[in-house]
Amino acid sequence: MCVKIRGIMKYIVWRKYFVLFVFFVGLGASVSVAFANHSWGGYHWARTANPFILKLGYNTSSAWKSSLAGASADWSQSSVLDLAIVPSQTNPKNCKPINGRVEVCDSKYGNNGWLGLASIWANGKHITQGTIKLNDTYFNTPTYNTSAWRNLVMCQEIAHTVGLDHQDEDFYNAPLGTCMDYTIDPTPNQHPNQHDYDELEIIYAHLDSISTLSQTVTAKAGQDIDHENRATWGKEIHTSLDKRTSVFERDFGNNEKAFTFVFWTGEKTD
């Protein structure tokens, strides 16, 4: 009888720990999204519903058409975001921002050291407009004139304009399989990965009482950034250890700021 009772007790103890093990494994799986951690400072588009539609102004040459379409489709797989490519409303060389949307531009911006720029304007934590500039001075060279490099940079710059930061900034680490990873080989890093989609769900988990996805918002005078004049970018608030990526902040006062994400080539400038 005692042997039988001991056997029952061992079974109860074993079952208890087995249930706890299954519970914590399941809990870890269910909250794994919480480990996504590459939001850019919590900046996001204000909106009253998900998924929200963000317009991308098509101001690029035909060389970028495939990369823009592919990146737009990739990021639209998120459960909270749909990207819509819309006709141009700006000059690609200047790439002036327009409230409520992101302008995507390419041009020969010169031997200035940067491959791509993504800028966002924010009121508090709410993004109000954005621009993306792709520097054909470098993309017309054999080094960067590949679909892999175009896809990576387009994918990454769009992500910055919706509030995502990099997952990794070491060019020499093993590729993570996401365009939010800096790498010397762009081939495996041309698209988002699940970690990116998880982070977007965290950023846009809440809804806002207002929307900044409208062109009815009036831009304030003097808030433009001249990307040909680095002095207008503001102060450098972040740079990677290898100096291949930087973030600049321009403070206009009254809780209005602009941030510029710089993808440096690492090459000498004029």
Question: What do you see in this structure?
Answer:
The longest helix has 29 residues, at 2-30. The N and C termini lie far apart (91 Å). The protein is an alpha/beta fold and 270 residues long. Strands 1, 2, 3, 4, 5, 6, 7, 8 and 9 form a 9-stranded mixed beta sheet that branches. The protein has helices spanning 2-30, 65-75, 136-139, 147-160, 194-203; strands at 44-45, 52-59, 81-87, 101-107, 114-123, 126-135, 235-239, 245-253, 256-264.
Number of helices: 5
The secondary-structure element order is HEEHEEEEHHHEEE
Low-confidence sequence ranges? 1-35
Helical amount: 25-40%
Radius of gyration: 23 Å
Q: How many β-strands, per DSSP?
A: 9
SS-based class: alpha/beta
Shape: globular
Q: What's the overall average pLDDT, rounded?
A: 85
> Describe the biggest sheet?
9 strands, mixed
- β-strand percent reads 15-25%
Termini separation: 91 Å
Concise synopsis of the structure shown:
The chain has 270 residues and is an alpha/beta fold. It has helices at 2-30, 65-75, 136-139, 147-160, 194-203, and strands spanning 44-45, 52-59, 81-87, 101-107, 114-123, 126-135, 235-239, 245-253, 256-264.
Features:
270 residues, alpha/beta, 9-stranded mixed β-sheet, 25% strand
Would you spell out the secondary-structure blueprint of this structure?
Elements: H1 2-30, E1 44-45, E2 52-59, H2 65-75, E3 81-87, E4 101-107, E5 114-123, E6 126-135, H3 136-139, H4 147-160, H5 194-203, E7 235-239, E8 245-253, E9 256-264
Parallel strand pairs: 1-6, 2-3, 2-4, 4-6
Antiparallel strand pairs: 5-6, 5-9, 7-8, 8-9
